[in-house]
Amino acid sequence: MRILIAAAGSRGDVAPYTGLGAALRTAGHDVALATTDAFAPLVREAGLEFRPLPADPRKGGGNGGTRELLRAAAAFVGELGQGFADALDRGADLMLLSTTTAPFGRHLTEATGIPGLGVYLQPTAPTGDFPPVVSGARSLGRAGNRMAGRFALRMTDRLYAPAVTALRERLGLPPAPPAAPRERLERGDRPVLHGFSTALVPRPSDWRPGLRVVGNWWPYHDADARLPPELEDFLSAGPPPVLIGFGSMAAGEGERLGALAAAALRRAGLRGILQSGSAGLAAGGDDVLTVGDVPHAALFPRLAAVVHHAGAGTAAAALRAGLPAVAVPVTADQPFWARRLAAIGAAPEPIPYRRLTAERLADALDRAVRRGSCAEAAARAAKHMAGEDGAGRVVEAVERPAGS
């Protein structure tokens, strides 16, 4: 079967689909991954066909408030919609659609007849269990959470509406209300598979039957790859260090964050690795090393803890390795994942990015590393996750005959 996976956003929004694609390829399918040019090397390294999507993922990020985030998201979505149909020019028998691409994929299915299956990294359907993941809000009670979830879906429809209108015109489809395709799929109980662990977010009991939580799909990792020699030497030179990184967040704030991180590590009496990321973190000293991109699967099992921005992928990777964490959420769905880590006991209470200080970070590190409860909770989660096979569940769903 020719399968097209479509995903767009930051590295954390795309990398898990390289592992999913590799699992589908191993199962005998011809797999392409459509994403933005920045991630073409990741796609090709996984042995998948790369198909370009036009949007710049940096337009979907930012460190500002809700208004700035919405403006950035609108620009990102508008650019993405302009060329989304081009990803199908080389054909496919099935589309696997991420949270960001599903609102376009529904219209491509209508125009071409090519079926689509949702494969989401975030829970988006309304539930009484928690508020919308991108709202940053704490629980509003069961009724309030469901109401907020429905409102969030309507806001997403509005965000995508101009780009969807242009796409439907290009595809020769008649005008349609923004919510119509989504509501039609919901009424038909079309399946959506969610790639996160029930150790972190149990499946809500009030979800419709077609919504499944299958476990993470992990970024592709070459098992023969080795860590850089300088990093190997640092790891061997003392006790397990703490990794501090903010992924694609906090662009341009590397000097401030590097100094803050180094001060927190000294205050806590810990060795540390700074992952430069988009922020450009850097610091020196005998007990601090700065690195670039390093596969989580190779590095995390050799750490004492991770300080991160609570992106879905990094939060899951730390749990998979049984590591306690200190979450410093910046924006979007990160406060949700940060609170989930704290709720299961694998991290102390999150430190909002704008309130981050060396003193607060050092205190949180002390609690995460030297008080055993966080490590014990993370180890329990890791054992649970070891029994999940998210990619395998997607392969089964893809190969299951229709209607079975």
Question: How do you describe this structure in short?
Answer:
The protein contains 14 helices and twelve strands. It is an alpha/beta fold and 404 residues long.
Molecular structure report:
The chain is α/β, with parallel strands linked by helices and 404 residues long. The chain folds into 2 domains: 2-216 and 388-399, Rossmann fold; 229-386, Glycogen Phosphorylase B (Rossmann fold, 3-Layer(aba) Sandwich), CATH 3.40.50.2000. It contains 14 helices and 12 strands. It has helices spanning 11-26, 40-45, 66-82, 102-112, 141-171, 180-187, 229-236, 254-268, 296-299, 312-320, 334-343, 358-370, 372-386, 390-399, and strands at 2-6, 30-36, 49-53, 94-97, 116-120, 192-194, 211-213, 242-245, 272-275, 288-291, 305-308, 325-327. The strands form 2 sheets. A 7-stranded parallel sheet has the order 3-2-1-4-5-6-7, with helices on both faces. It has a 5-stranded parallel sheet with strand order 10-9-8-11-12, with helices on both faces. Strand 8, helix 8 (254-268) and strand 9 (272-275) form a beta-alpha-beta unit. The radius of gyration is 21 Å and the shape is globular.
